[in-house]
Each structure stands twice: as C-alpha cells, then as structure tokens.
Amino acid sequence: MSDVIAAPAQARVPVRGGGTFPVRRIFCVGRNFADHAKEMGAPVPASKAERGQPVFFTKPADAIVIDGVVPYASATHDLHHEVELVVALGEGAKVFGYAVGLDLTRRDLQSAAKAKGLPWDIGKAFDHSAPIGEIAPAALVGELAPRTLSLMVNGTQRQHSTLDQLIWDVPDILAELSKLFELKAGDLVFMGTPAGVSALQVGDRFEARLDDVLHLAGTIAPPRPAR
Prior knowledge:
mainly beta, Fumarylacetoacetate hydrolase, domain 2, five-stranded mixed beta sheet
C-alpha cells in the first residue's frame, strides 16, 4: 500500500569516523545531578538507597539539530540551556557511543505547567530542542566517571561537573528505562544536566564539551517566522 503523504526524512546524527546514526527515539532524564535538583527546588537524595525513581521524559526524534544553528524557540521568553551527556544505543540496545547535547527548555512554559500539576511536554518536546554533536564510539570515549561535562556561553563558563556526580549512571538509567520501554537501536538518552542552567538569547554562542573527547558548538538564531 502506498503512502498518502511524503514520508518525512529520518533524523540522523554524524558518527566520528564516518556514517550516520539514524534516530528512533529520544529519552531524557531529569534531576540526575544533585546540584541541579537542588537549584530546581527538588529533594536531593542523601544516598543511593534514597534515590527513588528517575524522572523520565521524551523529545521527538526530529528535535535534534546537527548543524549548530538553533532558532530561538517559539512561545517562550525564557529559553534555558541544559548541557548533557547523550548515550546512543546500537544493536541489542547496547551502548554504541556517546555525544554531548543540549536539552533546551522553555522554562516559563514548564514552570507554568508544573504549578498547575499538568504535564510539561510543551516545555521540553518542541522543535529544535535537542542540539547534538557527533557521536563517538564508546571505545574512543573510555571510562565516563572521571570525565568533565561543561558548557560555555559567549566564552563564559555556565555549567561544569564531573560525571561521577550523576545520581543514576548510564547502566542504572538503561536498566530503569528498560522497565518502562523496549529500548532499541537508534535510541538516544540525554542523561541529565548539572547546576548552572540559565537563559539563552538570540546571538548567543555556546560550546559544550566532555573534556577534549566530545564537542558541540553553535549559536542561537532568530526565531523562525510562523507559517
């Protein structure tokens, strides 16, 4: 049976060394650094035994931006950056590689929804809300815990933390996600952000890094006109 509309192009992320990674789904983890949970007014677990359950949400696959040009989001006056380690899953839902990305957030819309006890998808799952750098195979990245995740905006450091500060590490998160979803090749997992989230403005230039191994750079462009 033929399609009645043109099939949309599948979102793909470049892979270091050649090829692309076709994106199936994007999962995200909230409040996965204690310092960020604290700055957002959420309880901070004192030990692993007190962690409870991770907070998960999703973004559409076509929210990714790979050229670094990020239009300022519509319907918001408070667009925030959240720098994150991104896990790319390969065959058998095993870790294929890693990237750095931004979980962009319409903070005003998210906060308004939270205040009313409503879902806050509109604050997270919008167009161009997931800029991402190239994916490096896991073997090239090596051990994650000692590595440092950071974000510079206009040459000034905004966010900075070592990955040993994650409340739930990568194996933990994949195990918890697997209880809720059937993970498959092509899935991306944004692992959560450290403290220091704040607003972005049109013209801002950002640079995210995981030490000197992973990199993402870009700029906030003017909003796209409504169609």
